[in-house]
Each structure stands twice: as structure tokens, then as C-alpha cells.
Amino acid sequence: MYIDLFVKGVSSILEILAAVVVGYGGIITFYRIIIKSFLGQRFRGDYAQARIDLGRTLAVALEFELGADLLQTAISPTWNHIGIVAAIIILRSMLNFLLERDIEHLERQIVAEPQK
Predict the structure, then answer these.
(1) Contact, 32 vs 46, CB < 8 A?
(2) Burial grade of 112 (CB within 10 A; 0-12, 13-18, 19 or more)
(3) Rounded distance, CA 102 to CA 30, Å?
């Protein structure tokens, strides 16, 4: 009984943390791309770096969500729920893999570009 409440609480906290991380990443990216443009500051490759930073925050948020899903499965182990959570975990893991691959590609592009 108490363990179920504890696990639900921890799962909810992880989901809230994921939302906070995504919000933080969005605000920072918004500032770096939009606000700097309106203030007339030079962009100097900030777009690629902003995408990398946003991708990293999204990857961290996906890890929090994945942890929350695993905890939810631990407290409600019906086969139907396990199947649904397994599908969600697979989709989130694939998305995380693709995000990491895109981040690595962008980082290689930044390193390969000649410095101005």
C-alpha cells in the first residue's frame, strides 16, 4: 500500500522534472535563436549549437520519462499495462537514440566548419 504511493509519487516527480527540463531547454533555445536575432546580435553558428543543447535537454527529459514509465510498470504489473509500457519504452528509446545520433552529427559539423 505505502510502497505503491511512494512509487507513484516518485514517478510523478520524474514526470514533473521531465517537463521542467523541456521547458528550460525551450526557453534557452528561444533566447539563443529568437531574442538574439531581434536584438541584432550576430548569429555565428548559434543555431547549430542551440539545436545541440535543445537535443540534449530533450534526451535528458526522455530519460526521466522512461524512469517514470518503469516505476509505473512495477506497481501495476498487468500484462496489458506491461505491453503498453513496453511499447512506450521502445518508442522513447528509439527517439532517444535518434536524438543522440543527430546531436553527434551536428557536433561533427561544428568541429569541421572553419573558424571565422
Answers:
(1) yes
(2) exposed
(3) 20
Neighbours of 101 (CB within 10 A): 11
Q: Which of 70, 108, 111, 116 is nearest to 89 (CA)?
A: 70
CA 34, 27, 41, 52 dihedral sign is: negative
Please tell me the distance from the alpha carbon of residue 84 to that of residue 87, in angstroms, as a whole number: 5
Domain enclosing residue 94, as ranges: 2-112
pLDDT digits (tens, 9 = 90+) for 77-115: 788 878 888 888 888 888 888 888 988 888 888 787 765
Structural domains counted in the chain: 1
pTM, two decimal places: 0.75
Comparing CA positions, the residue from 39, 93, 27 lying closest to residue 66 is 93
